[in-house]
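Can anyone check this?
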Amino acid sequence: MIHIEVQGSKETDFSERMYVYNYRTYDRYRRPVASLAVLTDETVSWRPERFVYEIWGCEASLRFPVVKILDYNNSEKKLLENTNPFAIVVLSQLKAMETRNDPEARTRVKFDLVKRLYQKGYKKKDVVQLFSFIDWIMSLPEELSQRFWDKLISFEEEYKMPYVTSVEKIGIKKGIPLGMQQGIPVGIQQGIPLGMLIEAREMIIEVLTERFGRTSAKLSKQLENIDSREKLKALHRQALRVKSINEFENRL
C-alpha cells in the first residue's frame, strides 16, 4: 500500500499523523505500507521525517521519505525541460507561491504554464487534468480570470486543440448548472474549473461512503450547492476526521 500525504503548512503533529495513517492502513488491509510526504509549505527549516515514542522499553516509530517543493526553487529550467508531468506540477506550485501577491504576474505565468501543456505533446486527458491542478492553485481575480480565459480560447482556436474549452462544453451538455451570466459560466469567471469542483464533491462522498458505508441524497444535494473550493477542501478534511456521518452532516 502507498500512502502519500501532501502538506501545505507547518503542523506540529504532522509526524504523528503520518504514523497514525500508516498503522491504520496496515490494520485495515494487513499489507506493508509506504508512507511518503510531499511538503509544499514555505518554511525552509521544517522537514519532519520521523515519529517515535518509547515507554518502559517498548518503542514504536515510523520514518518516512520527504520531498520538499522548495528544494526545486532554483531548478526552473530543468523543470521546464523535463517531460514528466509532475515537473509541471512542482513548477506550478512554486510559481503559485511566488506570485501570490502579484495577480498580473500570476496571470502571465499561468498562461505560459498552460501553453506548455500543449507544447509538450501531452494527450488531451493529461492536459485537462494538469490544467485543473494549475487552475486550482493559481486562482485569479474575476477581471484577470476573464482575460486569461479569453487568451486560452484564442490559443486553442489558433492551434485547433480545444481541450479545456471542450470539457466545459461537455459540462453544459450534461446539464451541470453553470450559472450563466452574459453567456459566460460563473465557474469560469471565478477561475474555478467545474470539473475540479465536481471531483472535490465526489471525493467527499467517496471518503464518507468508505468510512461509514452510506451517505444520503440530502447530503449530496447540499454539497452540490457549494461552489467554494476552500470550503470543499475543508469539508474533505472533515470527512477524513469525523467520527460519524451525523457529525459530518452537523458540521456541513
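Reply from J.R.: I decoded it. Residues 194-212 form the longest helix (19 residues).
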